[in-house]
Design goal:
141 residues, 0% strand
Length: 141
Amino acid sequence: MGNYLDYGTLEQRMTAVRLQALCNVEGAELTGLAAAVIERAEALVDSFAAVRYQVPMTRNELLEEWTLRIAEYELYKRGPGGAVPEKIRESYRECLDRLADLSAGKLQFSTAVSQPASARGQSLDVPGGESFFDSKSMNGY
């Protein structure tokens, strides 16, 4: 945890009152829950970034913002009532769009270390000799 976002920044940006209201716990439980949410948000960012870059990447403001948006969405989703405000939902969707751009190579970080492309390509090879569409299985069509 803390590659892109730390608890202090989350609390500062969301405000302590709102964070506690969404988590509905206090003290060590609040810190633990927030840490778990941040960890999941960072994992999501890394899953997109890992397509092109070595992760974890060097922390920067954009990675921090994306992680914050994802964490905030997750906190609202698990909060009382589970209703996510439209502003937060739209911010989350926009964040996922930018992450998709990052993994597609449309958005690039000049300071990040590129991940070498796989020499075998990106296809999936499933060994086996069984044919799914042979004359026997297609009988009746």
